[in-house]
Amino acid sequence: MSVDADPDDVVDEILALLSEERYPSARRLAARARARFPDHARVRNIWTIFDTQGKATLGPEASEPPREEEFEWLRHPPASVRGKWVALFGSEMIDAAETLIDLERSLRVKKLAKSALVHYVD
Hints:
Layout: H1 7-19, H2 23-36, H3 41-47, H4 68-75, E1 84-89, E2 92-97, H5 100-110, E3 117-121
Antiparallel strand pairs: 1-2, 1-3
Helix pairs in contact: 1-2, 2-3
């Protein structure tokens, strides 16, 4: 990450690494981005994928809400989303896409008021 890096470009690079299944490289870049741009919304959001504590944050000192409904939905997903990335709020699917990058772009356009659970459905 260069000295004059744009945080949105860094997030796009992290998403590209994830799409190439280069997870350790993506995690290292996400950690550096989080340290460098701690208040940038997309950087905070992408970091939730790698959060070693297992908890995403929605704001300062705020824990992620319970996700039981999302996990129950993921136990029996519809066949139409197999092999896709999905975004969920409770038992409602907000969106699905072939790639994580496409899903992230779609969610950015939607400007959601709260954080969705994003997951790949085998």
